[in-house]
User: Fold this.
Amino acid sequence: MDDARRSYGYIGPVELVEQVSPDATGQPMADSNDFSAWITAQSAVDLAEPFTFVVDVSGFLRLAPRRSEHVVCAGGEPVLGAGEIAFAREGDRWVVSQVSNQSTGYCPDLASWDALAAALDGIGLARPAAFTHEVEFRRCPECDELNVVKESHLVCVFCESDLPAGWNLDRGFSNR
Assistant:
């Protein structure tokens, strides 16, 4: 599968999957009307911090409060992207002001930007050219632990083994 359409299965803590219910999924944004209705219903307190997002396998952006788990937002399903997103008013329109792929439940690769960009374009939201905060995830081939790569330092923080240069979370963890 090409990276732009790669889906990411949930690999986070099993106990969070128990929170998934049909009534608790993120709000899907099929068009600008959906987004306008949703954003208007958000409080000033909610708008002051980023929201949880996923891009479902149909390509729709789903939004939920920040403290929501990505797996709950996605209804327990695989996603094309996941992270955190913030919005700001620019004149008479809403724009994406910050966005990251920070989701330790799905650990999406930076290539997931393409799916998010398409979803945002589909609802007519102005956006940056890429993630404003990029998170690189790697699974250690030696100890099987999830690592967040910082400053391109490809060494496992748990066992000090070398981490692969490319994203490698396309298979589950053996210790979960």
Observations:
- Residues 32 and 124 are 6 Å apart (CA to CA).
- The mean pLDDT is 93.
- The first strand starts at residue 27 and ends at 29.
